[in-house]
Specification:
single chain, Rossmann fold, Helicase, Ruva Protein, domain 3, 7-stranded mixed sheet, two-stranded antiparallel ribbon, 34% helix, 19% strand, EC 2.1.1.182, Ribosomal RNA small subunit methyltransferase A, rRNA_Ade_Mease_Trfase_CS, S-adenosyl-L-methionine, rRNA processing
Length: 262
């Protein structure tokens, strides 16, 4: 391939043409889409996407790959944004935005939360991620994979695991299984959370000691009577509550205007 994968950038390049075709079919690009690819690498998705798209934005941090992007693709069809996707301002791109990419597994969770901040501008996102992370993203309450990441993403996105991708589909092969996930933002008027910062605080506290009951983990927020009025059993653990229940807790506290909350 003429490029040595760099561990510091979490580079594993997709080489399985059947998987690539399946991903592009799942994305369903259309010529006029405002699409941005995170970490185009050696072009596994870039090339087939450009067969349909009029224009593709790409965000790349590796200077060697940036040099290849400038020589391997028609510059009137690709816009190269040099830098870290974690620091990129997606509000500078046209809307409605579609985001795709093989995300570096070592920073996948921070990237997902970064994208969440732009959810109102996004139509959908399709990402390659570590399978374990995807399982946590889409997990239902009271299952082993369900946790803080599940709640914090499910209140903002409809999510669906689309495809399993084995290690041998990459070069170099990662030590973990991968998967493709689709995220579709929930419209702002349908988000049940009134105070996002408070919601995040409640979820973090509840899952901070996940083997303890809500009576213990949320004792700084709720009294016994609060649980009763919310219709939530204080003997349950965080993993037993769905997004709706966490939203009810946060909204009750937000409406109570208790000291210390904003």
């Amino acid at each position: 391939m003429g490029h040595e994968a760099k561990k510091r950038f979490g580079q594993n390049f997709l080489i399985d043409q059947n998987i690539i075709a399946d991903i592009v079919r799942a994305i369903r690009p259309e010529a006029g889409d405002n699409m941005v690819e995170i970490g185009p690498g050696l072009g596994a998705l870039t090339r087939p996407l450009l067969q349909t798209l009029n224009l593709l934005h790409v965000i790349e941090i590796d200077r060697d790959i940036i040099a290849r992007l400038k020589t391997d693709y028609p510059q009137d069809r690709i816009v190269i944004h040099e830098g870290d996707a974690l620091k990129f301002d997606f509000a500078t791109l046209p809307v409605p935005l579609r985001i795709v990419g093989n995300l570096p597994y070592n920073i996948s969770s921070p990237l997902l939360f970064h994208f969440a901040g732009y959810a109102a501008r996004i139509t959908d996102m399709h990402f390659m991620l570590q399978n374990e992370v995807v399982e946590r993203m889409v997990a239902a309450p009271s299952t082993p994979a369900y946790g803080r990441l599940s709640v914090m993403l499910q209140y903002r996105f409809h999510m669906e695991k689309l495809l399993d991708v084995p290690p041998q589909s990459f070069r170099p092969a990662p030590k973990v299984d991968s998967a493709i996930v689709r995220l579709i933002p929930i419209p702002p008027d349908q988000i049940a959370v009134q105070d996002e910062a408070l919601f995040a605080q409640i979820v973090a506290a509840a899952f901070g000691q996940r083997r303890k009951t809500l009576r213990n983990t949320l004792r700084d927020y709720l009294q016994e009577g609060d649980f009763a009025e919310l219709g939530i059993d204080a003997q349950l653990r965080a993993e037993n509550l769905g997004v709706t229940e966490f939203a009810r807790i946060a909204n009750r506290l937000a409406n109570a205007h208790r000291p210390g909350f904003s």
